[in-house]
């Protein structure tokens, strides 16, 4: 009977072809029994090594005791170690290319020693009894483009702490679930949980692509975390970094003494801006490694999607590089042809295996068809972060209102391309660090105006086409920049402005979830129509959001100055009433409670190209949402009118 943990011919063939997407089943450390003896089968890919031994707790870290054997013509080394047990630590001792000695962690380790220590750990997770079958069934049938998505982005180590100490996945889940349910977010997005050595990288410089970070507990603890969120109808997205990896000696760099995971051409390998190394997508085994990693997180931990970090760095050979620092492709261009094909294969494979998951590109350029299917020439993601909207909007909002009329195009330009991709609107962690200030502190003006601007920003974001993502702390007006070393300032909720801001975000999410017009046609032209895009003198914009077949319509008016606009007239789509469903200036949210109508009746006065219009007071630095209630047709009146017309005709 073949040993399932021993790399057979077919496994090795697929791995070397770049098409083995469950390579974690034979590479790495696997508890097994061979010839009646219990132990662990260790297997590693290191084609240019001259000698490898596995060292660990089971052999006093002695390189002489457990040498590995190289499987002929494969570049794969393997050995069985009798007596090695679950949760023991180990590394690979490698005499590499040209005899250089290296001691490495296992690229396929399921767990690593708690940082700053770096050993791999033999780890076979205990059986976990999942209770999220209902969620997974629902996910499989999801049509995310026509569903509300409101994501709460978070860093687990600094969301909350226990007297300055990191919390366990289980404890975080028990506090997070009621909070997300209260706030109305549909998903959480976790900054990378693949093991990483340097806390200041926030997980974006990885060493363990199959190892859940041990900072917050065990794999079983994280399964509980995901399971609890799923049981409460909350999706879980995880940031994943297939673009580059850190240079730490125990990691992937020069793994067997040669450039194995990175390119041998330093112009392709060196990532100058982050001092990391780019993956070599011309290497088939790198495809197997990375796509297996993506598959592992969704398969083993029921993750609902991956936000793929730094996609631009994968697509462009010259990304953030000067002339002479990069090498062109075979056609003389700047496109990374192998990475493009890798991305297409990644997305195709993941959607085939897991219908209904999210594959989100953090991509900052104008690369076309990022969210088009791979078989139609696209990259195959189903969403892309709208970095253009984010940069323009924050730049606009940081301006003093007196200068905003000269920056008006930054509010309106996104409508030129908002349906060109399936977009997500991010206000992410990157915008509240490194001297950029927190969102509320970016806002100009005194204390009152800062919070009014923040509510206005959020109301604009939620009304604009595209799914939503907000970094933790912004929902209650965290005033200092995010610091990964410490908990959010939850004590701020003792102060009215912060508590009322949190109340507003809760209400905004509820309005968003309830109103189909805000999300059902996010990515179709019929879902958005300008009423007035060009009132830069008053810094006001107005537009219509519509649901499918125009069955529901919302009128959005946004006043970006502290000056109220009394009797502001706009065209509207038809006769009837326009009812106020959200006003960011309400006193219950910390606003000025400037007088505005709760209901406005349309008048037969043509305006803005419409046959009907309304006049309404716009509060200062505020957004208002009006829901259209069409005039009811009086059947008797209609019948009488038809009779009069017929008599007149006679």
Automatic annotation (TrEMBL):
Active site as annotated: 309, 362
Keywords linked to the UniProt accession: Carbohydrate metabolism, Glycogen biosynthesis, Glycogen metabolism, Glycosyltransferase, Transferase
GO function terms (MF aspect): 1,4-alpha-glucan branching enzyme activity; cation binding; hydrolase activity, hydrolyzing O-glycosyl compounds
Primary enzyme class: transferase
Function: Catalyzes the formation of the alpha-1,6-glucosidic linkages in glycogen by scission of a 1,4-alpha-linked oligosaccharide from growing alpha-1,4-glucan chains and the subsequent attachment of the oligosaccharide to the alpha-1,6 position.
Family membership: Belongs to the glycosyl hydrolase 13 family. GlgB subfamily.
Name recorded for this polypeptide: 1,4-alpha-glucan branching enzyme GlgB
Naturally occurring in which organism (per UniProt): Halanaerobium congolense
Organism taxonomic ancestry: Bacteria, Bacillati, Bacillota, Clostridia, Halanaerobiales
Originating gene: glgB
